[in-house]
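Researcher: Let's do a round of design. I'm pasting the structure tokens now; please hold your answer until I've finished.
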């Protein structure tokens, strides 16, 4: 079983500035999407390790509106066919009946964790992110009312939890790993968070999309 925690660490980006906490408020996040800066995502595509055709997907990047905002994440169940056991955003494949990536992300979040669409305010989308498992993922950033009662689907979600957004938007917590995969170097980010009970090892596509969110908010 592949364990990403054992892959060598090649750097930590503590030299980069954190996004100031005041820029993470709902008002500032709304303004950033209304008037987006000129910026470029840092990670667009992971090395492919499957021959599947590309499939469109969407995830919800749910910022919970506490006085100190948090990000809602899930831990996938161990039996799922892709990304089993990993920490992820709520989301999945875009179905033919979904009107848009935003609609797909809202539907999946409702199905996975019971997040009601009426408790969500969509702000906008980040550029698509192509995973090594051949999903072209649209991250849909949204605000979520604090205090919403979730009902995780035990078939898909082992746990749902929150991480302070300020922690994730501070590159001092962004670690870079590298390993050889099929003779080629492969790098990815991790953002381990200790919640007082256990370590939440955020890595791979989820960490890559969070890195792009950092670049968007710090541009």
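Researcher: That's everything. Go ahead.
Model: Designed sequence:
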């Amino acid at each position: 079983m592949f364990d990403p925690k054992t892959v060598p660490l090649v750097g930590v980006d503590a030299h980069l500035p954190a996004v100031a906490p005041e820029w993470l408020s709902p008002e500032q996040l709304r303004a950033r999407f209304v008037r987006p800066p000129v910026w470029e995502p840092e990670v667009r595509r992971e090395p492919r390790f499957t021959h599947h055709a590309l499939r469109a997907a969407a995830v919800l990047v749910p910022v919970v509106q506490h006085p100190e905002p948090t990000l809602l994440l899930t831990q996938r169940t161990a039996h799922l066919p892709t990304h089993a056991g990993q920490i992820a955003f709520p989301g999945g494949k875009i179905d033919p009946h979904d009107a848009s990536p935003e609609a797909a992300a809202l539907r999946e979040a409702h199905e996975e964790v019971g997040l009601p669409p009426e408790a969500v305010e969509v702000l906008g989308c980040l550029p698509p992110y192509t995973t090594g498992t051949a999903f072209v993922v649209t991250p849909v950033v949204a605000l979520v009312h604090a205090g919403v009662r979730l009902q995780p689907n035990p078939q898909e979600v082992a746990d749902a939890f929150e991480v302070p957004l300020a922690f994730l938007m501070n590159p001092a917590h962004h670690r870079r790993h590298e390993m050889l995969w099929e003779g080629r170097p492969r790098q990815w980010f991790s953002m381990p968070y200790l919640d007082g009970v256990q370590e939440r090892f955020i890595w791979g596509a989820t960490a890559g999309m969070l890195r792009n969110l950092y670049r968007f908010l710090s541009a």
